[in-house]
Amino acid sequence: MILFTNKHSSRLDYIIGFAGNFFKGEPVIISNDISEYINYAGPKINYSEIGIADNEIRIQPHRLLFEAGISEQKVECFDVNGYTAFFKTDGSYPFDIFAASFYLLSRYEEYLPHQKDEYGRYAHTNSIAYKEGFLSLPLINIWFEDLRKSLQQTFRSFTFRHSHFTFIPTYDIDEAWAYKNKEWWRNTGGIFRDILSGNFKNIVTRLNVLRQKQQDPYDTYDWIDALNAEHNLSPVYFFLSAVKRGKYDKNISPESHQWRQLTKCHSEKYATGIHPSWRSGDEPELLDSEIATLEKVSVKKKIVCSRQHYIRFTLPQTFRKLIESGITEDYSMGYGSINGFRASVATPFYWYDLDKEQQTPLLVFPFCFMDANSFYEQKLSADVAYEELMHYYTVVKSVNGTLITIWHNNFLGNDKRFEGWKEIYTRFIESVSAKSVS
């Protein structure tokens, strides 16, 4: 496939490179040579102000891909074939799909002045996806599926190879155990807090766990292992290895024998990554020591994957620090306050640094569902959360995207607060596995 343009920019190169994910044939050639374009035998996209060939898809450019710097953009949404679009232009295609995709994918709006949420994060309520009601859809995938169909109709002899649906289950280990393996003073303090709050059932459970008469409510690792094995899953685990612990970093000491054994065991079986602490967001220098701590016990040694604790990151600073620390894959692209597609996409993509105007080597894996969002933020019951999970499965499967979910070990145990959640996760995995086989 060839794309003609009489202008050039790193933004255009980036988004056309990304677009190649959806056209699984030959790479997209970018050309400013009209003769080469006219004589090209395959599908043609004319990304310019005037028509050139009779058999082409012409997309009139919006200015965004040829600008430098960051400025407020006029984003007016309208309907195209039943879905939302913006950056309306003339041409045989109703909007600039490349500029609109770049706007969403680069997280352009997160560089503009905005209101932070209570945790200092970009608030989802600022986003165009939330305001215009498409947060629950991988809109970029839907757009490119529509463009692919248009190209297929115009160039009937050309065959596009489809991408395949992929499911990546991921797990965040924020608190490895509720009571087990914690320092005596933490358990003692917990008992006093339960006495003051009148939560005597917690005291009984804690004492039973410490006496080895009951399984720790958060000790769900063997159960998850069995689920992974039964359904041939290839999960990714993220471990909090906070050197400095505090209000939001509550895991046991990463220097403890039990924590080391747990992380070593998982690194032998699965892909494992760092779960950068809350405090590392304020003290970036802590990230390197946290990675080093995890690497000491990792069988594969080099840690290249990450996901921010509390999904707390700021662009471009956080991602630049990850790159500097040797991270090549990040799984933080989503919200810690609501489920949905933060970048409006269900396909991994390389992060584009808007300030530096360049594609980076950091491959971003966007997630769309986290158990904690459903439970704490959206206040959903387990049964309603199951329906939400199946919605995300259905829409991602429909565009042959990559479905990434986040679960925490404590949601999958026997803590009464999360009663029913283990069961709906089992139902979900069984349903997805059955549908994948069929």
Polypeptide structure, described:
The protein has 438 residues and is of the alpha/beta class. It has 15 helices and 15 strands. The protein has helices at residues 10-19, 34-39, 97-105, 128-131, 139-154, 184-197, 200-210, 221-230, 257-269, 278-282, 286-297, 317-324, 371-377, 382-398, 421-437, and strands at 2-4, 29-31, 44-46, 57-58, 78-80, 83-85, 166-173, 236-239, 271-274, 305-306, 329-330, 349-353, 358-364, 369-370, 402-408. The strands form four sheets. It has a five-stranded parallel beta sheet with strand order 9-8-7-15-14. A four-stranded parallel beta sheet has the order 2-1-3-4. Strand 12 (349-353) and strand 13 (358-364) form a beta hairpin. Helix 6 (184-197) packs antiparallel against helix 7. The chain starts with a strand and ends with a helix. The mean pLDDT is 92.
